[in-house]
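Backbones bend. We report:
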Amino acid sequence: MVPNVDLDVLVIGAGISGIGLGYYLKRDCPQKTFAILEARDSIGGTWDLFRYPGIRSDSDLHTFGYEFKPWTHEKSIADAHLILDYIRETAREFGIDQHIRFGHKVLASNWSSTEQRWLVDVRCADGLTKTIRAKWLFCAAGYYKYEEGFSPDFKGLADFKGQVVHPQHWPENLDYTGKKVVVIGSGATAVTLIPAMADKTAHITMLQRTPTYIMSLPAKDPLAELFKKWLPEKMAYRWVRRKNITLQRLFWLYCQKFPNAARKYIRKHVAKRLPEGFDIDKHFNPPYNPWDQRLCAVPNGDLFRTIRQGKASVVTDHIDHFVTDGIQLKSGEKLPADLVITATGLNIQLMGGVQMSVDGQALSPGNHVAYKGMMMNEVPNFVFAIGYTNSSWTLKVGLLCEHFCRLLNHMDEQGQAVCTPRLPKDGMETRPILDFGAGYIQRALPTLPKQGVRRPWVMNMNYFFDEKVLRHGPVADEGLSFEGQKS
């Protein structure tokens, strides 16, 4: 057993959220001691874990990137290796890498009211375990399970003689040259894989039960390039970032307020990029309204171009069962396949799968309500990071990190040690924390905290509102209870 360590803030996860928090802690709370625990041996989270062909962001990097560090690459919709380089450079530039402890997997955490500390059990890279004592616990481990993605239980899968791969566990040096490939799914992963693989495969097919809204966006932002030529770097980045935040918000509002008009607009957008006579209504016209699920972006229309060139096909049908050489569909059609890629989604896992308790009582997030989308009622000195579902993830997380630092400084000024969100005494109606129709979200809702129907218990998805509340609004309100003496 390694001796105990005592910290002000313990951060779980060295991905884009954890590195961002490290910056704000160093900038706004330089007196605080902190460490970032990373179970793997490198930083980057998602962008280091996933290795499938063509992996990229489906958000522009002027909003997905950090507010404090300009994104300078010409690609606005960027490949994973560029994003990973950007995160690593940020960690080095601001000295955040000195606070990371690799190979440290958090096993369990218990809040001790007596000690006013989180007691966090950690397994280290050398196999030894230690307990870290921390005044605050901040979970920046993302929202999905790293160990495994979601794969439905397909009938007859054992009969299939080809290879089956989930993108979350892409085999190194997988050779798909000249093979017949079927990608099951139509989300961001599937629409990335199809054009990235098409030049090497004999043919590649996207097999979907339900279409997804997909739009082409320029890989390079022409206005960003113009601003960079004529303005100082930080000013250009700030203006492009604000422009993109505004456009994202306006388009989302348009889709919410005028769903039929938005549907027609997207359909017309897709029709321009596909061959004449292509059945758009069958393959690219979902039964739900735009932004009821996340809208997929394809840079420079690469997916549509691959279909137009005849290198890829889209099949909208249901799988009946697997056969030795492919997939039998319920329509009676058979899709021949040498390789099947199950781009069927993620498994949600909040809090990084850590077993949490308060004074020895096991904590179940599904029984709690989120305060400002970042804390949970009756759980002291604990923060978690969940980004936007209708915009870039990092926009929300950046504001949340700033607000957390303001809270720490407020408590120091008041000489307070413990902060606990508490629900109104008269009770409050609750609803799911994420009002989002994606399958991976719907499967996980019982395990996620709820949200309330009034502030500050609402999980807001509006950057401009959050900017007022999290950046400029008061940190103390009727939802928070402060106790104890600073030690």
In short: The two ends are 26 Å apart (CA to CA).
